[in-house]
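Two quick folds needed for the group meeting slides. Do the first one here.
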Amino acid sequence: MNVILAIDGGGSRTRCIAFDESGGTLGAGESGPANHLLVDRSTVAASIQNAIGAALEAANKTPDKVSLVAAGLAGVDYDGSGKAEMRELFQDLGYASTLIEGDMVMAHAGALAGKPGVLALAGTGSSVLGIGPKGDRVKVGGWGPLYGDEGSAYRIGQAALRVAARDFDGRGPKTGLTQAIIDELGLSSFRGSVEAIYVKSLEPREIAKLSKTANEIAETGDEVAAKILESAGSELAECVAAAVVQLGGSERMKVSYEGSVITSCKLMRDSFCKYLASRLPSVTVVAPQFSPVVGAYLLGRAKLGLDNDDRIQAKLTEAGLNN
């Protein structure tokens, strides 16, 4: 039986799973970054080759047994931008039969098990991808930290810093976030946040980590922190609602979510669901069913003309590959 290689290539990690055509997992491998917009081509090639090599070795298979490589890559956009360059890279590695998509497309396929609907992705940044019944795609958000990233960990971290500054100055409500941020950043006083952020140039991912701090303080009953997370959920849901409308506003449309901040923060997720229930009561919010790498496998199966029926999904679930 031939092998389908499913790849989830991100900005820091590349994951590859070797599947057979009946839904069985044969082996897996991991390596480094695979975003060609952030690292050079040789690094991307090495990451992909190493992840594939480890998966095939674990599966006791050789490259000639691979019928298709289905890859979701961070450097490829939802509309296919960047796809040609990466297809050429796989060909250079010896894999002519490929399905290349953006990582968000694969995440959508995983969360919604290959079905139409809308996915809200909220990690360090955020964006929303909707795919209609006929395959039409719409993207909402994804404008980055300067004028976008609604509902993201970065925006939550920014908001936490703002309310802490207001508390410190005495021009806003008291909140436990102020001391929590001091502790998290290793400061002697909140005044030291100026040097940490502007002089030492705190990276966006480090500011995004403050979303976890905000969640922890909100769970203690801090109303200021809770409001930040509730607003983040509503802002992200607003993007989802725009995508639903652009796709025709189907009454039976499903919505799912993915990403570290929304999956780990119940308060934000509840606010997200509450907003959609009030704005679009006919839309159904479902928990993500599979991970992005499984989404790559499902789209790979579809590319080969194989069914993604309940039996296949049950087998993947039994293997512990569901989210």
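Then this one, please, same format:
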Amino acid sequence: MNTDGMAVVVNNLEKRFGSFLAVDRVSFEVPKGQIFGFLGPNGAGKSTTIRMLTGILAPTGGSGTVAGFDVRTQAEKIKANIGYMSQKFSLYEDLTVEENIDFYAGIYRIPREKRKERKEWVIEMAGLKEHRRSRTAILSGGWKQRLSLGCAILHEPPIIFLDEPTAGVDPVSRRQFWDLIYSLSSRGVTIFVTTHYMDEAEYCDRIALIYRGELIAIGSPEELKTKYMRDDVLEVASDRPQDAMIELDGLSGVKEVALFGKGLHVVGETGAAERLAGAIRVHLEGRGFSVSRLEQIVPSLEDVFVSLIEARDRAGKAQSEVRV
């Protein structure tokens, strides 16, 4: 792999826990200054991968570098050159906002003459001026999130790892948090973020999709929708979407059907959208369903991910049947 201009380079990285393969030979690169999203359901291997890259877990196999340091032999140097924010916000609840920042300034060994300047920068960046003397325990999830990010970047690391940073945070706070991420990225900081929120993945420059420890796709949001989703997608609005989904599952021409909000997304073969739409309307209305909308749409990242997961599950099932 070409490592020039790369913040993270991973080659066949693997992690086993006994007989369980948590991360299965993943390979990717993250250019400096990029917002890189690691997307997948819970238990897919996202957090395990990020812990190997941050020097917390030792890999079982493969290789990788973070900020130019080897993930196998230079874990301590990696830790000194990154920021890491876990999904549980590693803050001390009994300390105030300022006291938490002071504590992390000591952990990161920021020179005393620079600590005040860095603390004020974090408080300003995170919008915490009115909360600087508040005990952390009384802060809302959104404010704790901002404080946690501020503590993670006190030492001005070139790379920040964010592990499910917006889990359990309200939508407004999530949006504001992403504004902070954009601001950091504009300064050249590399952001590596894990998430299972599909809408958040749209904010990333590039996304890697991981499922059951395997990397199943990688590219920009637009590339994923065009390169990996060649099938047509129809949106169906019906009075009984859950029942309608059951009715459409197995209908000729329907590859996949899934609930999406209050409606359905139906996946069919490329170029057959008009014919499939007619068949769906006839099938549902013939069984007493009211269809208020039925139209072809641009696939969402969720459509892409569901399609890739189901294709991977089908391939795995076929392999199992061959072995039997």
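Slide caption for protein two: The chain has two domains: 6-224, 230-298.
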